[in-house]
Design a protein that fits this description.
homodimer; mainly alpha; Arc Repressor Mutant, subunit A; about 0% strand; elongated; DNA-binding; HTH-type_TetR-like_transc_reg (chains A, B); TetR/AcrR family transcriptional regulator (chains A, B); DNA-binding (chains A, B)
DNA sequence: GTCTATAAATCGATAGAC
DNA sequence: GTCTATCGATTTATAGAC
């Protein structure tokens, strides 16, 4: 309930206002669709001020990605439970419809940076790919303890593989949500988790039942 | 005046050249990143001719989606085998890197339209969402015969659910390919197929183990 | 049907007063 | 640091000769 206090002055008030304005617009309008003029208007500052705080549009979005990554990390701390993948996929539904959960919805926009290779030299795309790697490593640390030791002994990379699979599923359901597919995300969160669990169980049986490959 | 008629002729030469040029550019540059001037240049025609054949950019992309859907359907006819999902995911690796395989690369363009909600009123996005539904139904027809009868008896929608899951995986691995994730797509194609098979096996065991319900 | 030239609008970014 | 005014580049789309 109590949000983590943001007493640090690292992000001044006006910069935060600009970032929040950019986030609100970006979630519904995307990268190209968000204009600096509109960011300025929504933040209550003139365009000149926006360019004083951020060098250009690229850098604004790069810092926006960092800003949202900070929010994501807040949501992914604390004790690990077995519902990691289930909650990730279930969250994809709300991310596209719930206007309050902007940080969640932003990852749909982030996927655009992955797809738009035209932005290869774009600072924002580079930042997203960097954050994507960091998210992956954080997820590996949370998932690996849940893999049976016998499976990891037979295949030390199995935890990483499950994270790759889980990320593909999460990204895929983000797309489904964005496309407006009429599906029950809670049900598919369960189904996906079951599929991964079945895979792990199969591997565990294999690892214990067989000495050779 | 007289609009072109496709009754007697299918996609005249110059229109095809324009569509192919648009596809080549769109796959790497996206919707906004593809300019009509560049489409004209690559097709070898001036911009005026492009606008004579297609009313505007929206309609050009809408017809491009239809055009690519035709290619996709050609690749998804014939006998169904068990490797449907495996091949879809394995294809995602080449789809984003091999410029020749434009029918597969089209998937990336499609994902762009799925994600860009700003284009909600865009004719091209509407066309894509329509095509997305058609693709889904075609996949259901191919997948359902592979589901054990006992599972379908217990859950008539199980085939559709597997297609939703398969589509999420395929979309997710396309993003992984676009993001440049350093993964072995062949391995994850196998792993994904295994996960789905394990899920079906688990359901089959469940369906046969219970007589009632 | 093809092509050139250009209109009309938008957007990112800057200059400079305060 | 804030704000106004505006530049320069880009892009969609059209007009009109051939």
């Amino acid at each position: 309930m109590t949000k983590r206090s943001r007493v640090h002055q690292s992000t001044p008030e006006n910069e935060r206002a600009i970032l929040e304005a950019a986030l609100t617009l970006a979630v519904t309008a995307g990268y190209e669709g968000t204009t600096m003029a509109e960011v300025a208007r929504l933040s209550g500052l003139p365009t000149g001020s926006v360019y004083w705080h951020f060098n250009n549009k690229e850098q604004l979005f790069a810092e926006l990605i960092e800003y949202c990554f900070g929010k994501w990390k807040e949501d992914h701390t604390g004790p690990t439970n077995r519902d990691l993948l289930r909650r990730s996929i279930a969250g994809s539904a709300g991310g596209s419809t719930d206007p309050e959960n902007k940080a969640e919805a932003f990852w749909i926009l982030a996927l655009l940076f992955a797809l738009e290779k035209r932005l290869a030299d774009n600072a924002a795309r580079k930042k997203y790919l960097d954050v994507r790697r960091q998210m992956f490593e954080l997820m590996v640390q949370r998932v690996e303890p849940q893999i049976p030791g016998s499976v990891l002994a037979a295949d030390p990379d199995f935890g990483r593989k499950m994270v790759v699979l889980g990320r593909a599923l999460t990204d895929g359901f983000y797309i489904a949500a964005s496309a407006g597919d009429d599906i029950d995300f809670m049900e598919f969160a369960d189904l996906s988790a079951s599929a991964v669990e079945a895979l792990i169980a199969r591997r565990a049986a294999m690892a214990e039942g067989e000495v050779e490959k």
